[in-house]
Amino acid sequence: MFRHRFLLIANPALGQINPAIHFAKRLINLCPAHVTVVTTLYMHRRITNKPTLPSLSFLAFSDGYDDGFIPTPDNDYSTYASQFKRRGSEFLTNLILSNAQQGHPFTCLLYAPLLPWAPEVAREFHIPTTMLWTQPATVLDIFYYYFHGYRDYINEKTKEDPNSCSVTLPGLPFSLSARDIPSFLLLWKPSVFDFVLPTFEKQIQDLDLEANPTVLVNTFEALETEALRAVDKFNMIPIGPLIPSAFLDGKNDPDDDGYMGGDLFQVSNDYVEWLDSKKEKSVVYVSFGSYFEVSKKQREEIAHALLDCGFPFLWVIRENEKQEEDMSFREELEKKGKMVKWCSQVEVLSHRSLGCFVTHCGWNSSLESLVSGVPMVAFPQWSDQKTNAKLIEEVWKIGVRVDNEVSEDGIVEAEEIKRGLQVVMGNGEKGEELRMNAEKLKGLAREAAKEGGPLERNLKTFLDDVGTGPT
Ligand code: UDP
């Protein structure tokens, strides 16, 4: 009955799970395929609004922290990662075996970044594997070259002169300074997440073992034309933007259950009414994604900037961010804006009242803003967000970056945030230019995702090539 049975594994983070689910739905709509999405029990339970489609299943395994992992001095992220790997590998092995025994073997494993153990398991059973890269192609290029002779060059240049160095890499039509490079790569700037670097390396080394491996990238041709071709060794196929189709073509699929993205917190959607009451392009939306915790000090700087600027704002402050020690001027904030613990971000961004997105530049947030034509105040924190901010500000020119490298404690001050807001929301030449570029990219994103367009064609090519069973 099914031509393909995909096993799709993502890390327990919405930044991987949302695009994975949108991708699964696109596969199912295109051909007789069944997709099993695997993540941890904790994440599985937290996302309460998972789509319910007959050809889509969700399975979960315990990573040993079913109430969520909180690092301690004796139990840090690297200990967690090895446990996650051990339990995940065991789970995948049993799942692959039991599906085969029941007469419906998986025909392909799709895996998100930072899970090199997953394809290792699949290969033992001769199941073809393909990586679903959930960051821009540019970031994959940077990783590739870093692990192919450019590690010392990148580190030496950026360490010597972080602000004005100019790192150039083959095939990329722009140069990078220290603040544009994924943070894990800068060895002279240690962080608690440095343990992920060998995992990234392993995943690039594994791809090296294949001849011209296909990597599915959540981007589109017009957005990253050169970056998609910067590594000869890879066959990068753009299959993005992975956004609910209702926000790309304004249509809901007849079989669609309306999944807009995972809800991590249950909230009332009274913010929609609030947005409805605002003028066109007048609202500033502030969110730092599903994971990063904004410090109290940084929240206060943001609050000052918002109050001083006077634009109405919708601000996501998640439940797990420390509410008890919150801003002394909360009352004043509530008069001018609305604060929520969560929202349906794609719906917010596509609301006619949206004028600007103050974002941490997670790749999903960046793409969601781009697809809705909303210019950004780029406020990157770490990882690929640094490169995404560079693309937003300097390459696509759809936002203003506020710089957190300047202050010693990494805090962006209110004045700097105000500067960004005033440019993006203002009537000056720069603001006009940003809005025009954002509108243009919105059109190109929709073009990429239209019926019979590049996204669909690329997926069909992938489906034809992927084969229909173990090799
Ligand atoms: N998101 C949401 N509501 C919120 C905050 C975030 O739906 O209030 C979604 C957002 O639409 C995006 C995802 O959470 O799809 C965050 O992914 P991103 O890559 O931007 O950042 P991460 O959470 O991985 O840092």
From TrEMBL:
A single GO molecular function term of this UniProt record: quercetin 3-O-glucosyltransferase activity
Protein name: Glycosyltransferase
Similarity section: Belongs to the UDP-glycosyltransferase family.
Gene3D superfamilies referenced in this protein's UniProt entry, alphabetically: Glycogen Phosphorylase B
PROSITE patterns for this protein: UDPGT
Entries under Pfam families matching the protein: UDPGT
Keywords carried by this UniProt record: Glycosyltransferase, Transferase
Enzyme class: transferase
Organism superkingdom: Eukaryota
EC number: 2.4.1.-
Keyword Glycosyltransferase among record annotations: yes
